[in-house]
Amino acid sequence: MTTPNAHPHIDRELDLSNSGRGVWLVKVPKYIANKWEKAPGNIDVGKLKISRAPGQKTQVQLYLSEGVLCLKEPGEQNIPKVHRLDVYNVTHQSLGVFSHVVPATSDAVVPESEKLYMEGRIVQKLECRPYADNTYYKLKSESIRKASMPQRQVQQLDRIVQNFKPVSDHKHNIDFLEKKKAEGKKARDDKDVVLNMLFAAFEKHQYYNIKDLQKITKQPIVYLKDILKEVCNYNLKNPHKNMWELKPEYRHYKQEVPVEPKADKNSSDSD
């Protein structure tokens, strides 16, 4: 089952004519990748030099073209021209390179379909590394300097800017303080009124903490505790630790009255 927004799956043929060709998977530094992305498609980006000496590993070097080296912005550091390529064999993996060709729109009667190609099988991995010369040291120092620059900087203003003027206090803080101040100045209710609210609350539950009782009565905490000490006990042990309950002489919990079965009217008449 497919979702309404899912794209329909279309089977396409895969061209395997180059499946036997071996290719390299090369990892290059970011500054080289950025240069190659900026380079136009009609210039050489570099050349490889492969040196084979008897009894030694094959040496591979990359020489960047002058056209790529000239692609830089004002103030940008030069990048090294020569790099070495460390070669590693691919083991226990099957990797390949594929390409996807999308035809340009045309007015042909039979439109050309998209094509998939296997360009080759990866036989070796190469890592491009620069030589430690003065050009590389300058490039690295500049990158470290830019990375160490703070993201936020202090800016001196020569005139008042409303956008940067801080708010002394936010509205929700002001409303909260006013509400808290109003509750703190609330006049104490009559003692009998508070007792009636407490007795009504304890008819629903046997145990309360002080915060719940304050919400119910809306009385100052000190005044409420003075009244609670007269009619309630404060539990210091589990399972109702730090909870208030009515003293035994004030407990008048509602008890369920058992319902007596009604006598059968017919039976009473017969008797």
Structure, explained:
By secondary structure, the protein is of the alpha+beta class. It is built from eight helices and nine strands. It has helices at 30-38, 66-69, 134-148, 171-184, 191-202, 210-217, 221-231, 265-270, and strands spanning 14-15, 22-27, 46-51, 59-64, 82-89, 96-101, 115-130, 232-234, 244-246. The strands form two sheets. Strands 1, 2, 3, 4, 5, 6 and 7 form a seven-stranded mixed beta sheet that branches. Strands 8-9 form a two-stranded antiparallel ribbon. The longest helix has 15 residues, at 134-148.
Which features characterize this protein?
271 residues; alpha+beta; 9 strands; elongated
Q: What's the topology here?
A:
Layout: E1 14-15, E2 22-27, H1 30-38, E3 46-51, E4 59-64, H2 66-69, E5 82-89, E6 96-101, E7 115-130, H3 134-148, H4 171-184, H5 191-202, H6 210-217, H7 221-231, E8 232-234, E9 244-246, H8 265-270
Parallel strand pairs: 1-7, 2-7
Antiparallel strand pairs: 3-4, 4-5, 5-7, 6-7, 8-9
